Amino acid sequence: MKLWKRAAAAIKDRKSLLAVGFSKRTSHHNLDLEAAIIKATSHDSSSVDYSNAHRVYKWIRSSPLNLKTLIHTLSSRVNHTRSWIVSLKSLMLLHGVLSCKLPSVLGELRRLPFDLSDFSDGHSCLSKTWGFNIFVRAYFTFLHSYSPFLSDQFHRRPAANRRSSELERIRKLQSLLDLILQIRPIADNMKRTLILEAMDCIVVESINIYGRICSGVIRMLPSSGKTDAAATLKIIDKATSQGEDLAIYFEFCKGFGVPNARDTPQFVSIPKAEVEKIKKMIKNVEEEEEEEEEVVVEEEKAMVVLEKPRLQTIVTEKWEIFEDDECCFHEKVIKEYQKHPLPLIVSYQEPVYIEYMMPDLITF
Question: In whole angstroms, what is the distance from residue 177 CA to residue 172 CA?
């Protein structure tokens, strides 16, 4: 059965190569590059054709126009084959192209030319391929985030707040490391040459990303200030935790037989003195904020006390006469009004009588 599957897979690759041979050669269609891509992403799970993979890298470096051929060929091949072997080899090939870090590649290849987020092998039963399906999906998820990150780093301009921009870059690297640590074989039937080769690439990339995180943190420590001390400490705590996770990941890869995981790398440790300095800075900031809050509370209490009126109740059997400076009626004024009931203006002076005729504003 295995021999028959290998023969059928070889026939498929042969048919693809024959189709390329009969295609029309144009300035935008590199047949040699297309043939190298097909050979580098063959259906053979027992080996990886590195010679043709390097041919692909060489063609990509030679001209930006070849990138269109790469995108078209990989997209068509992955979508039509539905094979975990072809899909995984295509991801590995794209990973190598991204690692070249060419301006033409990073400018154009912001998104992967295919979607493998819900990949499922279409040639074998799920009970045999579920582990490979998850592996392909995890690898795609990482590259799907890694590609735009590299593109943004290539096109980024000097930011007004350089420190804030650097902190954001380190956070994204930490997110990428979280994704790459999810790529691992989890089924019993996954110890194959192709999986080991893919894990080799993943291990090297994980070392690269974690090294960039550590170097970025070390550069940021001397210039840490009160405004970003909390954010810096959060990044340091996560970097420390990820270092432990990476060590466990390396032990797993070493036990699985990944060649590049035989020796655990030694990273530059984050200076503890600088970390303690940041913690002390955060503590001082928190104490200052608490003191400010206490002052505000005391001021609010004082304001409430001042605003509270003092009310008294007086019980008496005598009537008190209260005079208002604004509206008081003198006895003399009242008597005059009784004699002459005319319009009256209340005042301390003698009453003023209006003797001219008022206009009729209603019937006018």
Answer: 9
